[in-house]
Amino acid sequence: MTIRSLLIANRGEIAVRVNRAAKALGMRTVQVYSQADVNSLAVRLADEAIEIGPPAARKSYLNIDAVIAAAKAAKVDAVHPGYGFLSENADFAEAVAAAGIAFVGPSAEAIRLLGDKVTARRVAAEAGVPTVPGSAGRVADIGEARGMAAGIGFPLMIKAAAGGGGRGIRIVSSMEEFERQFPQASAEAAAAFGDGGLYIEKVIERARHIEVQILGDGKNFVHCFERECSLQRRRQKVWEEAPSVSLKPHVRERLCASAVALAKAVSYRGAGTVEYLYDDASEEFYFIEVNTRIQVEHPVTEMITGIDLVQEMLRIAGGEPLSIRQEDVRVSGHAIECRINAEDPYRDFMPAPGPVHELEVPNGDRIRFDTLLYAGYEVSPFYDSLLGKLIVHGKDRTDCLDRLRDALAALKIVGIPTTVPLHQGLAADPDVAASRYHTRFLEHWLQTAFAPAQGSKEVAR
Ligand code: ADP
Ligand code: ADP
Ligand code: MG
Questions:
Q1: CA dist 369 to 135, 253, 338, Å?
Q2: Residues enclosing ligand 1, CB less than 6 A?
Q3: I want to staple 438 with a disulfide (CB 3.0 to 4.6 A). Which of 93, 206, 209, 433 is the partner?
Q4: Distance from residue 221's CA to the centre of ligand 1 (Å)
Q5: What is the pLDDT of residues 383-437, one digit of tens each?
Q6: Is 293 considered catalytic here?
Q7: Of 17, 269, 293, 315, which is the active-site residue?
Q8: Which atom of ligand 2 approaches the CA of 168 most closely?
Q9: pTM
Q10: For residue 276, how far is its CA from the centre of ligand 2 (angstroms)?
Q11: Residue 438 CA neighbour count, 13 Å, CB half
Q12: In CATH terms, is domain 133-202 a member of 3.40.109.10?
Protein backbone atom coordinates (compact mmCIF):
# COMPACT_ATOMS: atom_id res chain seq x y z
CA MET A 1 0.00 0.00 0.00
CA THR A 2 1.33 3.42 -0.86
CA ILE A 3 0.43 6.11 1.63
CA ARG A 4 -1.25 8.99 -0.19
CA SER A 5 -2.66 10.83 2.81
CA LEU A 6 -1.41 11.20 6.35
CA LEU A 7 -2.98 12.34 9.61
CA ILE A 8 -0.51 14.03 11.95
CA ALA A 9 -1.58 13.13 15.50
CA ASN A 10 0.65 15.60 17.32
CA ARG A 11 1.45 19.31 17.60
CA GLY A 12 4.37 21.72 17.76
CA GLU A 13 7.66 21.41 15.96
CA ILE A 14 7.34 17.67 15.33
CA ALA A 15 3.98 18.15 13.57
CA VAL A 16 5.69 20.71 11.30
CA ARG A 17 8.58 18.29 10.74
CA VAL A 18 6.31 15.36 9.85
CA ASN A 19 4.28 17.57 7.51
CA ARG A 20 7.45 18.51 5.63
CA ALA A 21 8.50 14.86 5.17
CA ALA A 22 5.00 13.83 4.04
CA LYS A 23 4.87 16.70 1.52
CA ALA A 24 8.27 15.71 0.15
CA LEU A 25 6.80 12.27 -0.55
CA GLY A 26 3.76 13.81 -2.28
CA MET A 27 1.22 13.06 0.46
CA ARG A 28 -1.90 15.00 1.40
CA THR A 29 -1.59 16.04 5.05
CA VAL A 30 -4.28 16.36 7.68
CA GLN A 31 -3.44 18.08 10.95
CA VAL A 32 -5.43 17.55 14.15
CA TYR A 33 -5.44 20.43 16.63
CA SER A 34 -6.84 21.44 20.01
CA GLN A 35 -8.69 24.70 20.55
CA ALA A 36 -5.41 26.18 21.84
CA ASP A 37 -3.64 25.44 18.55
CA VAL A 38 -5.97 27.06 16.01
CA ASN A 39 -3.23 29.50 15.00
CA SER A 40 -0.38 27.00 14.99
CA LEU A 41 2.18 26.72 12.20
CA ALA A 42 1.32 23.02 11.86
CA VAL A 43 -2.32 23.92 11.11
CA ARG A 44 -1.23 26.55 8.60
CA LEU A 45 1.04 24.17 6.73
CA ALA A 46 -1.26 21.16 6.44
CA ASP A 47 -3.67 20.65 3.54
CA GLU A 48 -6.54 20.12 5.98
CA ALA A 49 -7.02 20.63 9.71
CA ILE A 50 -9.51 19.04 12.11
CA GLU A 51 -10.25 20.26 15.63
CA ILE A 52 -10.24 17.45 18.18
CA GLY A 53 -11.14 19.16 21.45
CA PRO A 54 -10.26 21.56 24.27
CA PRO A 55 -6.68 22.65 25.15
CA ALA A 56 -6.10 20.03 27.88
CA ALA A 57 -4.12 17.24 26.19
CA ARG A 58 -6.24 14.61 27.95
CA LYS A 59 -9.24 15.93 26.03
CA SER A 60 -7.54 16.38 22.65
CA TYR A 61 -4.08 15.03 21.75
CA LEU A 62 -4.44 12.14 24.21
CA ASN A 63 -8.04 11.40 23.30
CA ILE A 64 -7.86 8.20 21.22
CA ASP A 65 -11.52 8.31 20.15
CA ALA A 66 -11.27 11.91 18.94
CA VAL A 67 -8.09 11.25 16.95
CA ILE A 68 -9.48 8.07 15.38
CA ALA A 69 -12.72 9.87 14.47
CA ALA A 70 -10.69 12.58 12.72
CA ALA A 71 -8.63 9.99 10.82
CA LYS A 72 -11.79 8.25 9.64
CA ALA A 73 -13.52 11.51 8.68
CA ALA A 74 -10.48 12.62 6.65
CA LYS A 75 -10.18 9.14 5.09
CA VAL A 76 -6.40 9.05 5.55
CA ASP A 77 -4.21 6.06 4.70
CA ALA A 78 -1.89 6.50 7.68
CA VAL A 79 -1.38 8.19 11.06
CA HIS A 80 1.97 9.55 12.33
CA PRO A 81 2.00 9.91 16.12
CA GLY A 82 5.14 12.08 16.51
CA TYR A 83 6.70 11.89 20.02
CA GLY A 84 5.06 12.19 23.43
CA PHE A 85 1.22 12.09 23.55
CA LEU A 86 -0.06 8.81 22.00
CA SER A 87 3.20 7.87 20.24
CA GLU A 88 4.00 4.99 22.60
CA ASN A 89 0.46 3.98 23.41
CA ALA A 90 -0.15 0.40 22.22
CA ASP A 91 -3.94 0.80 22.51
CA PHE A 92 -3.77 3.72 20.09
CA ALA A 93 -1.62 1.77 17.59
CA GLU A 94 -4.18 -1.03 17.83
CA ALA A 95 -7.14 1.32 17.34
CA VAL A 96 -5.50 2.86 14.25
CA ALA A 97 -4.92 -0.59 12.74
CA ALA A 98 -8.47 -1.68 13.63
CA ALA A 99 -9.77 1.30 11.64
CA GLY A 100 -7.91 -0.06 8.58
CA ILE A 101 -5.32 2.72 8.74
CA ALA A 102 -1.53 2.28 8.79
CA PHE A 103 0.17 3.30 12.06
CA VAL A 104 3.56 4.90 11.41
CA GLY A 105 5.48 2.94 14.00
CA PRO A 106 6.00 -0.60 15.24
CA SER A 107 3.24 -3.11 15.98
CA ALA A 108 1.13 -2.70 19.12
CA GLU A 109 2.80 -5.87 20.37
CA ALA A 110 6.31 -4.40 19.98
CA ILE A 111 5.19 -1.18 21.69
CA ARG A 112 3.81 -3.23 24.62
CA LEU A 113 7.01 -5.22 24.97
CA LEU A 114 9.43 -2.31 24.66
CA GLY A 115 7.33 0.58 26.00
CA ASP A 116 7.13 -1.07 29.40
CA LYS A 117 10.62 -0.45 30.75
CA VAL A 118 10.60 -3.65 32.80
CA THR A 119 9.70 -6.02 29.96
CA ALA A 120 12.12 -4.10 27.73
CA ARG A 121 14.94 -4.88 30.18
CA ARG A 122 14.05 -8.55 29.93
CA VAL A 123 13.91 -8.52 26.12
CA ALA A 124 17.28 -6.72 26.04
CA ALA A 125 18.89 -9.20 28.43
CA GLU A 126 17.56 -12.12 26.38
CA ALA A 127 19.02 -10.54 23.22
CA GLY A 128 22.41 -10.44 24.96
CA VAL A 129 22.38 -6.69 25.60
CA PRO A 130 23.95 -5.70 28.95
CA THR A 131 21.41 -3.99 31.24
CA VAL A 132 21.87 -1.85 34.36
CA PRO A 133 22.08 -4.15 37.40
CA GLY A 134 18.68 -4.08 39.09
CA SER A 135 15.47 -5.93 39.75
CA ALA A 136 14.57 -8.73 37.33
CA GLY A 137 10.98 -7.60 37.09
CA ARG A 138 8.52 -5.26 38.72
CA VAL A 139 9.02 -4.98 42.45
CA ALA A 140 5.77 -6.18 43.94
CA ASP A 141 5.85 -4.74 47.43
CA ILE A 142 8.06 -3.12 49.99
CA GLY A 143 8.97 -6.47 51.55
CA GLU A 144 10.40 -7.78 48.27
CA ALA A 145 11.87 -4.36 47.51
CA ARG A 146 13.83 -4.22 50.75
CA GLY A 147 15.72 -7.43 49.99
CA MET A 148 16.49 -6.36 46.43
CA ALA A 149 17.64 -2.90 47.45
CA ALA A 150 20.04 -4.39 49.97
CA GLY A 151 21.43 -6.67 47.25
CA ILE A 152 21.95 -3.86 44.72
CA GLY A 153 23.32 -1.36 47.24
CA PHE A 154 22.94 2.43 47.53
CA PRO A 155 22.54 4.87 45.88
CA LEU A 156 19.88 3.32 43.71
CA MET A 157 17.09 4.44 41.47
CA ILE A 158 13.41 3.78 41.82
CA LYS A 159 11.93 3.95 38.32
CA ALA A 160 8.37 3.79 37.03
CA ALA A 161 7.84 0.98 34.48
CA ALA A 162 5.68 3.36 32.44
CA GLY A 163 7.78 6.50 33.01
CA GLY A 164 9.14 8.79 30.34
CA GLY A 165 10.22 12.34 29.58
CA GLY A 166 12.55 12.29 32.62
CA ARG A 167 9.63 11.75 34.99
CA GLY A 168 9.02 8.83 37.32
CA ILE A 169 12.64 8.45 38.50
CA ARG A 170 13.99 8.95 42.06
CA ILE A 171 17.45 8.46 43.52
CA VAL A 172 17.66 7.20 47.09
CA SER A 173 20.81 6.84 49.15
CA SER A 174 19.76 4.82 52.18
CA MET A 175 17.33 2.08 53.18
CA GLU A 176 15.41 4.55 55.31
CA GLU A 177 14.96 6.92 52.37
CA PHE A 178 14.10 3.99 50.14
CA GLU A 179 11.31 2.81 52.45
CA ARG A 180 9.88 6.30 52.63
CA GLN A 181 10.03 7.01 48.89
CA PHE A 182 8.93 3.67 47.49
CA PRO A 183 5.19 3.99 48.27
CA GLN A 184 5.22 7.67 47.22
CA ALA A 185 6.84 6.77 43.89
CA SER A 186 4.23 4.09 43.27
CA ALA A 187 1.31 6.44 43.98
CA GLU A 188 2.85 9.14 41.82
CA ALA A 189 3.46 6.75 38.90
CA ALA A 190 -0.13 5.49 39.13
CA ALA A 191 -1.41 9.07 38.92
CA ALA A 192 0.98 10.25 36.19
CA PHE A 193 1.17 7.18 33.94
CA GLY A 194 -1.88 5.14 34.91
CA ASP A 195 0.45 2.37 36.08
CA GLY A 196 2.03 2.30 39.56
CA GLY A 197 4.54 -0.44 38.61
CA LEU A 198 8.12 0.19 39.80
CA TYR A 199 11.54 -1.36 39.33
CA ILE A 200 14.92 -0.58 40.79
CA GLU A 201 18.31 0.03 39.21
CA LYS A 202 21.80 0.65 40.45
CA VAL A 203 22.93 4.24 39.87
CA ILE A 204 25.62 4.37 37.20
CA GLU A 205 27.70 7.32 38.44
CA ARG A 206 29.39 9.78 36.08
CA ALA A 207 27.79 8.03 33.11
CA ARG A 208 27.23 9.38 29.64
CA HIS A 209 23.88 9.00 27.89
CA ILE A 210 24.47 7.37 24.52
CA GLU A 211 21.70 6.05 22.28
CA VAL A 212 21.55 4.19 18.99
CA GLN A 213 19.14 5.03 16.16
CA ILE A 214 17.66 1.94 14.55
CA LEU A 215 15.48 1.35 11.48
CA GLY A 216 13.70 -1.88 10.64
CA ASP A 217 11.10 -3.17 8.20
CA GLY A 218 10.32 -6.33 10.19
CA LYS A 219 12.93 -8.36 8.30
CA ASN A 220 15.92 -6.10 7.76
CA PHE A 221 17.49 -3.96 10.46
CA VAL A 222 20.14 -1.27 10.41
CA HIS A 223 21.57 1.19 12.89
CA CYS A 224 22.35 4.80 12.02
CA PHE A 225 25.07 5.10 14.66
CA GLU A 226 24.77 6.89 17.96
CA ARG A 227 23.86 10.20 19.56
CA GLU A 228 25.24 11.48 22.83
CA CYS A 229 22.77 13.32 25.08
CA SER A 230 24.67 13.70 28.36
CA LEU A 231 23.86 17.38 28.89
CA GLN A 232 20.60 17.04 30.79
CA ARG A 233 18.55 18.99 33.31
CA ARG A 234 16.24 16.98 35.57
CA ARG A 235 16.99 13.93 33.42
CA GLN A 236 15.72 15.71 30.32
CA LYS A 237 18.00 16.26 27.38
CA VAL A 238 19.06 19.83 26.70
CA TRP A 239 21.78 19.46 24.07
CA GLU A 240 22.47 16.46 21.82
CA GLU A 241 25.28 15.46 19.51
CA ALA A 242 26.23 12.91 16.89
CA PRO A 243 28.50 11.07 16.81
CA SER A 244 29.68 10.64 20.43
CA VAL A 245 33.34 11.61 20.68
CA SER A 246 33.73 9.47 23.80
CA LEU A 247 33.35 6.10 22.06
CA LYS A 248 36.32 4.18 20.76
CA PRO A 249 35.63 2.41 17.44
CA HIS A 250 35.52 -1.10 18.96
CA VAL A 251 33.01 0.02 21.63
CA ARG A 252 30.88 1.81 19.01
CA GLU A 253 30.78 -1.38 16.98
CA ARG A 254 29.61 -3.49 19.95
CA LEU A 255 27.08 -0.87 21.04
CA CYS A 256 25.48 -0.48 17.61
CA ALA A 257 25.46 -4.25 17.06
CA SER A 258 23.62 -4.74 20.37
CA ALA A 259 20.89 -2.29 19.29
CA VAL A 260 20.45 -4.17 16.01
CA ALA A 261 20.27 -7.49 17.92
CA LEU A 262 17.47 -6.04 20.03
CA ALA A 263 15.60 -4.80 16.94
CA LYS A 264 15.88 -8.27 15.42
CA ALA A 265 14.63 -9.95 18.58
CA VAL A 266 11.25 -8.18 18.26
CA SER A 267 11.12 -8.01 14.41
CA TYR A 268 11.11 -4.22 14.74
CA ARG A 269 9.33 -2.08 12.15
CA GLY A 270 9.93 1.65 11.88
CA ALA A 271 12.38 4.01 13.54
CA GLY A 272 13.39 3.50 17.14
CA THR A 273 16.06 4.36 19.65
CA VAL A 274 17.88 2.11 22.07
CA GLU A 275 19.18 4.13 25.03
CA TYR A 276 22.22 3.26 27.13
CA LEU A 277 24.38 4.64 29.91
CA TYR A 278 28.08 4.50 29.14
CA ASP A 279 30.91 4.47 31.66
CA ASP A 280 33.97 5.69 29.78
CA ALA A 281 36.38 4.62 32.52
CA SER A 282 35.45 0.93 32.19
CA GLU A 283 34.19 1.17 28.57
CA GLU A 284 31.05 -0.67 29.70
CA PHE A 285 27.60 0.24 28.41
CA TYR A 286 24.25 -0.59 29.99
CA PHE A 287 20.84 -0.65 28.31
CA ILE A 288 18.23 1.63 29.93
CA GLU A 289 15.23 1.76 27.59
CA VAL A 290 13.82 1.78 24.06
CA ASN A 291 11.79 4.63 22.58
CA THR A 292 9.55 3.11 19.90
CA ARG A 293 9.06 6.41 18.05
CA ILE A 294 10.89 9.27 16.40
CA GLN A 295 12.94 11.20 18.97
CA VAL A 296 13.27 14.91 19.54
CA GLU A 297 16.98 14.76 18.70
CA HIS A 298 16.69 12.75 15.46
CA PRO A 299 18.00 15.66 13.30
CA VAL A 300 21.61 15.28 14.49
CA THR A 301 21.60 11.77 13.00
CA GLU A 302 20.05 13.10 9.79
CA MET A 303 22.77 15.73 9.54
CA ILE A 304 25.69 13.29 9.81
CA THR A 305 24.18 10.46 7.72
CA GLY A 306 22.11 12.32 5.13
CA ILE A 307 19.17 9.98 5.87
CA ASP A 308 15.70 11.52 6.29
CA LEU A 309 14.43 9.42 9.19
CA VAL A 310 10.82 10.62 9.01
CA GLN A 311 10.60 9.85 5.29
CA GLU A 312 12.03 6.39 6.05
CA MET A 313 9.34 5.84 8.70
CA LEU A 314 6.64 6.77 6.19
CA ARG A 315 8.06 4.45 3.52
CA ILE A 316 8.25 1.55 5.95
CA ALA A 317 4.67 2.18 7.12
CA GLY A 318 3.62 2.10 3.47
CA GLY A 319 4.97 -1.45 3.25
CA GLU A 320 8.17 -0.71 1.39
CA PRO A 321 11.20 -2.78 2.33
CA LEU A 322 14.09 -0.92 3.95
CA SER A 323 16.02 0.73 1.14
CA ILE A 324 19.13 1.35 3.23
CA ARG A 325 21.77 -1.32 3.74
CA GLN A 326 24.12 -1.13 6.71
CA GLU A 327 27.12 -0.43 4.49
CA ASP A 328 25.30 2.59 3.01
CA VAL A 329 25.08 4.31 6.40
CA ARG A 330 28.17 6.52 6.69
CA VAL A 331 29.04 9.26 9.15
CA SER A 332 30.19 12.62 7.87
CA GLY A 333 31.28 15.38 10.27
CA HIS A 334 29.65 16.29 13.56
CA ALA A 335 26.24 17.72 14.50
CA ILE A 336 24.91 19.42 17.64
CA GLU A 337 21.29 20.19 18.54
CA CYS A 338 20.21 22.75 21.15
CA ARG A 339 16.67 22.52 22.50
CA ILE A 340 15.26 26.05 22.61
CA ASN A 341 12.55 26.26 25.26
CA ALA A 342 10.18 29.04 26.32
CA GLU A 343 11.74 29.07 29.79
CA ASP A 344 13.69 31.69 31.71
CA PRO A 345 17.12 30.21 32.47
CA TYR A 346 17.78 33.07 34.92
CA ARG A 347 14.64 32.23 36.93
CA ASP A 348 15.07 28.52 37.50
CA PHE A 349 13.74 27.72 34.03
CA MET A 350 10.30 29.02 34.79
CA PRO A 351 8.02 28.41 31.78
CA ALA A 352 7.47 31.69 29.93
CA PRO A 353 4.75 31.41 27.30
CA GLY A 354 3.52 34.51 25.47
CA PRO A 355 3.65 36.37 22.18
CA VAL A 356 6.74 36.32 19.95
CA HIS A 357 6.98 39.71 18.25
CA GLU A 358 10.00 39.13 16.08
CA LEU A 359 11.86 36.10 14.84
CA GLU A 360 15.22 36.03 13.08
CA VAL A 361 16.58 32.65 12.14
CA PRO A 362 20.18 31.96 11.08
CA ASN A 363 20.47 30.29 7.72
CA GLY A 364 23.04 28.29 5.83
CA ASP A 365 23.17 24.81 4.35
CA ARG A 366 24.61 23.33 7.55
CA ILE A 367 22.09 25.01 9.86
CA ARG A 368 18.59 23.81 10.59
CA PHE A 369 15.97 25.34 12.88
CA ASP A 370 13.04 22.98 13.42
CA THR A 371 10.41 25.12 15.07
CA LEU A 372 6.75 25.83 15.76
CA LEU A 373 7.41 29.58 15.73
CA TYR A 374 6.57 32.37 13.35
CA ALA A 375 6.67 36.11 14.06
CA GLY A 376 3.42 37.09 15.74
CA TYR A 377 2.71 33.61 17.18
CA GLU A 378 1.60 33.39 20.80
CA VAL A 379 3.24 30.48 22.62
CA SER A 380 0.59 28.46 24.45
CA PRO A 381 0.85 27.70 28.18
CA PHE A 382 -0.90 24.35 27.79
CA TYR A 383 1.92 22.18 26.43
CA ASP A 384 5.60 21.54 26.99
CA SER A 385 7.86 24.50 26.45
CA LEU A 386 9.89 23.31 23.43
CA LEU A 387 9.88 26.08 20.80
CA GLY A 388 12.32 24.52 18.45
CA LYS A 389 15.70 22.97 17.94
CA LEU A 390 18.75 24.62 16.48
CA ILE A 391 20.87 22.03 14.69
CA VAL A 392 24.32 22.76 13.29
CA HIS A 393 26.60 20.53 11.24
CA GLY A 394 30.38 20.96 10.99
CA LYS A 395 33.23 19.07 9.43
CA ASP A 396 34.34 18.03 12.92
CA ARG A 397 33.29 18.85 16.48
CA THR A 398 35.47 21.97 16.76
CA ASP A 399 34.12 23.34 13.48
CA CYS A 400 30.59 22.47 14.61
CA LEU A 401 31.02 24.39 17.91
CA ASP A 402 32.36 27.43 16.00
CA ARG A 403 29.35 27.41 13.71
CA LEU A 404 27.01 26.83 16.63
CA ARG A 405 28.27 29.97 18.44
CA ASP A 406 27.62 32.03 15.29
CA ALA A 407 24.19 30.47 14.78
CA LEU A 408 23.15 31.10 18.40
CA ALA A 409 24.25 34.73 18.11
CA ALA A 410 22.13 35.10 14.96
CA LEU A 411 18.99 33.52 16.45
CA LYS A 412 16.65 36.26 17.71
CA ILE A 413 13.39 35.39 19.43
CA VAL A 414 11.91 38.66 20.68
CA GLY A 415 9.04 38.84 23.19
CA ILE A 416 9.61 35.94 25.58
CA PRO A 417 12.61 34.60 27.50
CA THR A 418 14.18 31.47 26.00
CA THR A 419 17.01 29.07 26.79
CA VAL A 420 19.26 30.58 24.10
CA PRO A 421 21.57 32.16 26.78
CA LEU A 422 22.01 28.75 28.41
CA HIS A 423 23.21 27.30 25.10
CA GLN A 424 25.51 30.27 24.54
CA GLY A 425 27.05 29.58 27.94
CA LEU A 426 27.51 25.90 27.14
CA ALA A 427 28.94 26.58 23.68
CA ALA A 428 31.57 28.84 25.29
CA ASP A 429 32.50 26.45 28.11
CA PRO A 430 35.95 24.77 28.06
CA ASP A 431 34.67 21.50 29.58
CA VAL A 432 31.94 21.28 26.96
CA ALA A 433 34.51 22.05 24.23
CA ALA A 434 36.64 19.18 25.55
CA SER A 435 33.56 16.92 25.89
CA ARG A 436 34.38 16.44 29.58
CA TYR A 437 30.93 15.80 30.97
CA HIS A 438 28.41 13.25 32.18
CA THR A 439 24.67 13.23 32.87
CA ARG A 440 25.01 15.21 36.15
CA PHE A 441 27.41 17.82 34.71
CA LEU A 442 24.79 20.42 33.77
CA GLU A 443 23.17 20.38 37.21
CA HIS A 444 26.50 21.37 38.80
CA TRP A 445 27.43 23.74 35.95
CA LEU A 446 24.18 25.67 36.42
CA GLN A 447 25.10 26.34 40.06
CA THR A 448 28.78 27.14 39.53
CA ALA A 449 29.43 28.43 36.00
CA PHE A 450 26.05 29.77 34.88
CA ALA A 451 24.74 31.34 38.13
CA PRO A 452 27.80 33.64 38.69
CA ALA A 453 27.58 34.80 35.08
CA GLN A 454 23.93 35.60 35.69
CA GLY A 455 24.90 37.67 38.79
CA SER A 456 27.35 39.81 36.85
CA LYS A 457 24.77 40.25 34.11
CA GLU A 458 22.26 41.60 36.61
CA VAL A 459 24.82 44.04 37.99
CA ALA A 460 25.51 45.26 34.48
CA ARG A 461 21.86 45.93 33.78
P1 ADP B 1 13.35 12.07 23.44
O2 ADP B 1 13.34 10.71 24.07
O3 ADP B 1 12.87 12.11 22.06
O4 ADP B 1 14.57 12.82 23.72
P5 ADP B 1 11.83 13.33 25.52
O6 ADP B 1 12.19 12.35 26.58
O7 ADP B 1 12.26 14.74 25.62
O8 ADP B 1 12.20 12.82 24.11
O9 ADP B 1 10.25 13.25 25.34
C10 ADP B 1 9.64 13.85 24.24
C11 ADP B 1 8.32 14.36 24.66
O12 ADP B 1 7.48 13.31 25.06
C13 ADP B 1 8.34 15.30 25.85
O14 ADP B 1 7.33 16.25 25.66
C15 ADP B 1 8.04 14.39 27.03
O16 ADP B 1 7.50 15.11 28.09
C17 ADP B 1 7.06 13.44 26.40
N18 ADP B 1 7.07 12.07 26.95
C19 ADP B 1 7.91 11.09 26.65
N20 ADP B 1 7.57 9.95 27.29
C21 ADP B 1 6.49 10.24 28.03
C22 ADP B 1 5.65 9.48 28.92
N23 ADP B 1 5.86 8.17 29.19
N24 ADP B 1 4.62 10.12 29.50
C25 ADP B 1 4.39 11.41 29.25
N26 ADP B 1 5.13 12.17 28.41
C27 ADP B 1 6.16 11.60 27.82
P1 ADP C 1 13.00 8.39 30.48
O2 ADP C 1 12.08 7.29 30.08
O3 ADP C 1 12.38 9.38 31.37
O4 ADP C 1 13.72 8.96 29.30
P5 ADP C 1 15.43 6.91 31.13
O6 ADP C 1 15.38 5.57 31.79
O7 ADP C 1 15.75 6.96 29.70
O8 ADP C 1 14.06 7.66 31.42
O9 ADP C 1 16.46 7.82 31.95
C10 ADP C 1 16.53 9.19 31.75
C11 ADP C 1 17.84 9.71 32.32
O12 ADP C 1 17.94 9.44 33.73
C13 ADP C 1 19.09 9.07 31.73
O14 ADP C 1 19.51 9.68 30.53
C15 ADP C 1 20.10 9.29 32.85
O16 ADP C 1 20.59 10.60 32.87
C17 ADP C 1 19.25 9.08 34.08
N18 ADP C 1 19.28 7.67 34.51
C19 ADP C 1 18.36 6.73 34.24
N20 ADP C 1 18.70 5.54 34.79
C21 ADP C 1 19.87 5.72 35.41
C22 ADP C 1 20.77 4.88 36.17
N23 ADP C 1 20.48 3.61 36.42
N24 ADP C 1 21.92 5.44 36.66
C25 ADP C 1 22.20 6.74 36.43
N26 ADP C 1 21.42 7.57 35.73
C27 ADP C 1 20.26 7.09 35.22
MG1 MG D 1 14.98 7.94 28.02
A1: 41, 31, 10
A2: 83-84, 163-165, 236-237, 291, 295-297, 384
A3: 206
A4: 24
A5: 999 999 999 999 999 999 999 999 999 999 999 999 999 999 999 999 999 999 9
A6: yes
A7: 293
A8: 3
A9: 0.97
A10: 9
A11: 10
A12: no
